[in-house]
Amino acid sequence: MPAQGTFTYYGGMWLASLASVIMVALVAHPSLPTNKLFSNPVFEYIGSRSYGIYLWQLPVFAFAEAKVLAPTAWYNLIWQLALILILTELSYRLIELPTQRFDYSNILGILQNFVREKGWKLKKNILPMLISGLALISLGFIIFSPPSPHDQRVIEEKIMAQQVALQKKQLAEANNKVPMSLKAVAEKYKVQPVVAEKASQMNVLALGDSVMVAASTNLQEVFPHMYIDAAVGRQAESLATDLTNAKSKMPNPDAYLIGLGTNGTIKEDEIDAAMKVAGDKPVYWLNVHADRVWAKPNNNLLTKMAKKYKNLKIIDWNKKASGQSSWFYSDNIHPKGTGAEKYAALVANSLTNVEK
């Protein structure tokens, strides 16, 4: 049964337990054919070693998982099963049988003899147990030793490192091809040149409140083809209407940028209406950085709605701006100077989606 399946926990395990009880009853009853079927040397052998098999299968499979490229391949399963049976037989003969035959009623006297170095017989019995214990410890060191060069995880890590190196190389090559004028923009806003280049080519329809107004000059410098409709005091209640009106200026934008929530509560149906206007185009929404009671609920709602709409991406301006009072005017809401540049840079990195 699948570990994540609903049936497993809603009746599946109960049915498996019931089937096990029925099987035990069928096998245990001496007059039933099933008793004769399962009463043979093979099953008797497996039954007598079942606990050892149960104990050894986990470390052996864990060892194979850690050290072998294809642990579930049939040729690897053969040696794993063989190793389980060998270890089980050793532990059965060297640990289980001696402990079963051990005289626990006279354990105090045996210990006294052992301390006095007269318990040679006991030493003889304990020696195999010590050897088995050392074997277990050794196996533990093998299992938890550093992965071999052939370990699948090591291979994956190397491939990922090569992929990162390739991406960096491609990014460097793309940056070298960017015109000098855009490199100057990139340097000013501390973004990759390719970010500035991509931003300069994007048609973005932006709609926001006074926070966006404060950073509008910087946004326009990074996104020369951005149409900005930002107004002081704007709230989300008229978002869908405002977005529809703004689309008359840019009917087919590459993406939408929204910066609302500073002046009041955002409602879920207002976001729904805006997403309907945007259609399948990507929508980037700057969350709220303001010391106002509705800021946190608004940000929580935006995070929730981003899970509802795959094309809604939240730009975490609040996290970026936290603790940066020098970026803002005295209200700690509207960005100025460096703050406006950071605002525009964050938008550029988010909309162009360039790996850093």
Automatic annotation (TrEMBL):
| GO cellular component terms given for this protein | membrane
GO molecular function list? acyltransferase activity
What are the alphabetically sorted keywords of the record? Acyltransferase, Cell membrane, Membrane, Transferase, Transmembrane, Transmembrane helix
Q: Which GO terms describe its biological process?
A: polysaccharide biosynthetic process
Domain of life, per UniProt, equals Bacteria
Q: Which Gene3D superfamilies match?
A: SGNH hydrolase (3.40.50.1110)
**Record flagged with keyword Cell membrane:** yes
Q: Which InterPro entries does the protein's record reference?
A: Acyltransferase_3 (IPR050879), SGNH_hydro_sf (IPR036514)
Q: Does the keyword Hydrolase apply?
A: no
Q: Where are the transmembrane segments?
A: 7-28, 77-95, 126-144
- The protein's name: Acyltransferase
Recorded source organism is Lactococcus lactis
Gene responsible for this protein: yvhB
